[in-house]
Every structure is written in C-alpha cells, then in structure tokens.
C-alpha cells in the first residue's frame, strides 16, 4: 500500500512540475506577443491574459517565499501597463467615446490591485514596502484611466448640490 502512495505522489509531483512549465511557457508566449504588438489598443487587450499569467507567477513566488522574483514580475507588469497607458494617450483617442483598449487596461489594473492586496497581507509588514510602492503606481494609473473613461462623473470630493 505504501508503494502505491509513493507512486501516486511521484505522479502528482510530475504533473505539478509540468503545469509550472506550461504556465511559464504561456507567460513567455503572451509576453512575446505583447512586446511585438505595435498597436497600443491591441497591446492593452493583450495585457489582460499576460497580467493573469504574470500574477500566477507572482502568486507562486509568494507561496515559495521567493519575494524578490515575485517583485520583479510585479514591476514588469507595472511597466507593461505603463507602456499601454502611454501608448493609448499618445494616440490622442478620447477614452470616453472610444474606450477600446482603455477599458481592457483599466480592468487589468483593477484585477491586479485586487490580487496584489490579497497577496501582500500574507507577508511580514517589513517586507511589504516595495510591493506597496508598485501598488501605488498601479493605483494611480487605474484612477487616471477611470477619470479618462468617465470624465463627467461628479467629483467625490465635492458635496452633491441640492436641487431647490
């Protein structure tokens, strides 16, 4: 009976290793497509699956205690998102009228913030600072995109005007 469990354990370990290799291959494939894409709208659309793949790597780094590697991947994601944002803004497109690309980038940023918040609380407070710095950059990009997508929203800082 012990031999059966040992064999099952080896099979499970091999399957897990193969899954990690496949996930890394997918990340490399998405990153390659992202780097070679010249249209900022398509680049922003590619950031959604690329960001998902990168956050699987970041989560793996957290689980294995490899925080420097997780931080490097997170910084790479932030830089990719900034490249998308800068490219979209350089095109001079009105995000409110033509949200394609802007919307996908904002969705990716929002999801990244949620995932990052879930991960950061799992590490000691003294190791959170570099992750929180990157989170701040991502949050600023997200807020700016929301403002571009919805420019006519009332400012939350201003009190609502009463109708008389």
Question: What's the SSE blueprint?
Answer:
Blueprint: H1 2-36, H2 40-64, H3 67-90, H4 102-120, H5 129-149
Helix pairs in contact: 1-2, 2-3, 2-4, 3-5, 4-5
Would you kindly provide a written description of the structure presented here, covering whatever features stand out?
The protein is mainly alpha-helical and 164 residues long. The chain has one domain. Helix content is 76%, strand content 0%. Helix 1 runs antiparallel to helix 2. The longest helix has 35 residues. The chain is globular and about 65 Å long. The N and C termini lie far apart (81 Å). The model has no long low-confidence stretch (mean pLDDT 87).
The ordered string of helix (H) and strand (E) elements is HHHHH
Quantity of strands, as a count: 0
Poorly predicted spans: none
Distance from N terminus to C terminus (CA atoms, Å) equals 81 Å
Radius of gyration: 20 Å
The chain-level structural class is: mainly alpha
The average pLDDT value, as a whole number, equals 87
Q: Percent of residues in beta strands?
A: under 5%
Largest β sheet strand count, sense and barrel closure: none
Q: Globular, elongated, flat, extended or rod-shaped: what is the shape? A: globular
Q: Approximately how much helix is present in the residues?
A: over 70%
Number of helices: 5
Total number of distinct structural domains: 1
* Assembly type: single chain
Give the structure's gist in a few sentences.
By secondary structure, this protein is mostly helical. Helix content is 76%, strand content 0%. It has one domain (14-149).
């Amino acid at each position: 009976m012990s031999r059966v469990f040992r064999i099952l354990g080896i099979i499970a370990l091999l399957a897990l290793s193969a899954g990690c290799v496949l996930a890394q291959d997918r990340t490399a494939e998405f990153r390659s497509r992202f780097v070679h894409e010249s249209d900022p709208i398509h680049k922003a659309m590619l950031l959604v699956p690329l960001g998902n793949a990168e956050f699987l790597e970041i989560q793996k780094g957290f689980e294995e205690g490899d925080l420097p590697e997780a931080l490097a991947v997170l910084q790479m994601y932030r830089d990719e998102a900034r490249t998308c944002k800068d490219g979209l803004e350089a095109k001079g497109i009105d995000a409110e009228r033509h949200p394609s690309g802007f919307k996908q980038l904002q969705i990716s940023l929002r999801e990244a913030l949620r995932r990052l918040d879930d991960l950061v609380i799992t590490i000691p407070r003294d190791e959170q600072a570099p992750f929180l710095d990157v989170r701040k950059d991502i949050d600023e990009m997200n807020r700016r995109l929301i403002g571009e997508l919805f420019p006519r929203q009332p400012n939350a800082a201003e009190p609502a005007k009463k109708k008389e």
